[in-house]
Design brief:
single chain, 152 residues, mainly alpha, Arc Repressor Mutant, subunit A, 7 helices, 3 strands
Length: 152
């Protein structure tokens, strides 16, 4: 007798895409009060984290790092600038390039965020090694999917 097709047996919980999607939703629920205390949306927060990692980036470079389109990042950066966290300046050699830099207020936000990030780490229920292994696995998955999408 032939083995039944996999998709006839698979339940929703068997799909990796649903596991990643639903984990992201759960993570967002835990992050919500943390972000509200910082007064930021998640995309704003990760933009600031990317600038903590490397200040003075172009909008294009920041967009690539965040996996977002520049047309999405630009209005977000305008809001962060209005909040006093970043400055945006046009390049002197090429005015099409816009550079983003943290303000002192943006740099100071790091201390508050560091304390609040402990909440999400604890909520994950993983020890340090498990956390790092899972994070590397998800990053590897993302890289593989990006490569596969580029080949498709």
């Amino acid at each position: 007798m032939a083995e039944p097709q996999r998709d006839q047996e698979a339940g929703l919980a068997d799909f990796m895409c649903f596991a990643v999607y639903s984990a992201n939703l759960a993570y967002s629920r835990v992050y919500k009060p943390v972000l509200e205390e910082l007064g930021l949306t998640y995309p704003q927060y990760i933009a600031i984290v990317a600038l903590w990692e490397q200040d003075e980036q172009t909008v294009k470079g920041l967009s690539d790092k965040l996996f977002l389109e520049p047309s999405t990042v630009t209005p977000m950066l305008k809001r962060l600038e209005a909040m006093g966290y970043v400055t945006r300046t046009r390049g002197t050699e090429d005015e099409r390039m816009v550079f983003v830099r943290l303000t002192e207020t943006g740099r100071q936000l790091r201390d508050k965020a560091r304390e609040l990030s402990k909440v999400t780490y604890k909520a994950a229920g993983l020890n340090k090694d498990e956390f790092r292994i899972l994070q590397r696995g998800i990053t590897n998955l993302r890289s593989n999917l990006i490569a596969a999408a580029g080949e498709a």
